[in-house]
Here is the input.
Amino acid sequence: MIMREQLLKLLKEIRPDVDFENEKKLIDNGVLDSFDIISTVQEMNDAFGVEIDVEDLEPANFNTIEAMMELIEKLQSEI
Amino acid sequence: MSIVTLPFFLFVAGLLVVYYLVPKKIRGPVLLIASYVFYWLNSHWLLLVLLGTSLAVYGFGLLIQREHDRYRRELGEHPEWTREEKKARKDRSRKRARRIMVLGILVSAAVLLFLKYFNFFGENLNGLLSLFGLDNPIPKLNLLLPLGISFYTLQAIAYLADVYRAKIQADKNPLKFLLFMSFFPQIIQGPIPRHSQLADQLYEGHAFDYRQVCFGAQMMLWGLIKKLIIAERLAVPVQALYAADSGYTGPIVFFGALLYGFWIYADFSGGMDIARGVAQMLGVNLVKNFNQPYYSTSIEDFWRRWHITMGTWMKDYIFYPLSLSRAFTNLSRKSRKILGQYAGKRLPAFLAMFIVYFLVGFWHGADWKYIVYGVWNGCFIMSGILLENVYRKGRELCRIPENSASWRLFRMFRTLVIVSLGRFFSGADSLQTALAMFKNTVTHWKDITFLTNGTLLKLGLTTSNWIILALFLALLFYVDFRHEKGTSFREVFARQPLVFRWGIYIAAVLAILIFGLYGPEYNAAAFIYQQF
Here is the structure.
């Protein structure tokens, strides 16, 4: 899927040391810190044309790459 | 009523009896009454400030909720609306809700800003105005601080933001909300709770659970050991070394800062354990506020282990909202054009981080030294992030594996030094004194003979007291070490035979009675964070 590959590439640029494919608790386990999250949100906003808000910053939306994709899809459908 | 005094223990004991005797349904209101009685005993008529703020925030919460509910209702009543129409109405509703939230936050913050910071602003403004020939036009007011105002104000702001963000529903029960804002073990010095984590479990009556009461009592005992044996003892040499006219120079000044760090850790975390212990005895689970901070490997790590609830509050209510705000995203776009991708992308987050640590410092007190303290920490965090690649390359060059114990120890040591230097600012009586202490540390920096030439015995503690201090500090760091590894002492004790368990409890109580300091120094070194 194009979005997944794009997202993975974007995430790997921010944190090349993290295994995004398999990590299931990126937020709950503190793998991504607040700076990583801000960078991720900025890149996601630019790449996918969405506006991620503070309210969307729930661990459930960022714990896995699949959750992030769901968030993007949800926001894209609201535009 | 200090929480290490007999009246407090009697208060808690009496409350426990009443709490578990009355029907479950009224246990919540009993806690509320107890909290307000405790507050009255501490702050008298300033109780009205807490009450007023709590009721105002409760009201604002309901108004925000009403706005959310109205929009949802209209959405249901008008299935014919187009997507554009729905979005337009949603935006309008959110704008209204946001205005109410902002007003509520301003009202709570204004009370704190006025009572705690009026004189600070006044003095500084007078200083500025004197450049124009005006002679101190702003008067100095004699303002009293209601107990815990620095803590419960943050709690209130978090609540209003959470209701606005629809993370929680507004609390419809005024008594439950009043209790949430005033629960006595935590009002003194935190932790700073979130409504979703605390409000329900506070108000619902809990059944008597022997294990919880036992564990809570044990936590209280540990807190008392930290506070009465370690903190009160450390207070003596720390005050001697931090005195503005002490005349000490060289490494002994840094030693003072090191001791100050231990002092504030023992005092603050000890108080936290007493609070959590009391809460646990009532069946309430308060959030941890410390996570073995002396095992931090960086300043960033330190602030995830020290005063944890302040860190998470800043992250959720200052850092993220600022970084993701329209103003900051526009700034990001502009700075990417001017500074390039790397720096440009990071600038807004750094600016937000700087603001966070400025606020952390400012929150600690109405003094420039605290602001410098906050900024000191912020600068090291930001430099740590900026130099991340540099550090990594350096480490690879020296062929040091990331997970090696020696590298970890080095990072812990480095963090300890930076944190301790920061304690010049938070502990000295003024910014000038702190800077003088900095200067005094580096003059005669080779002079470590203070450790052996008897200087230590001139700081107010006898040899035997130093030994007791050293032993209990070692115990504290051992306990922290085991906690870092995941051991729960209370679980371990629970599995031991009765004789051993009670032996430990009696030993702890005896230790507190024998080694605890209750003398005149005790009043001077009052709960450091209580003044907040």
Observations:
- Residues 300-427 of chain B form one domain.
- Chain B has 21 helices and no strands.
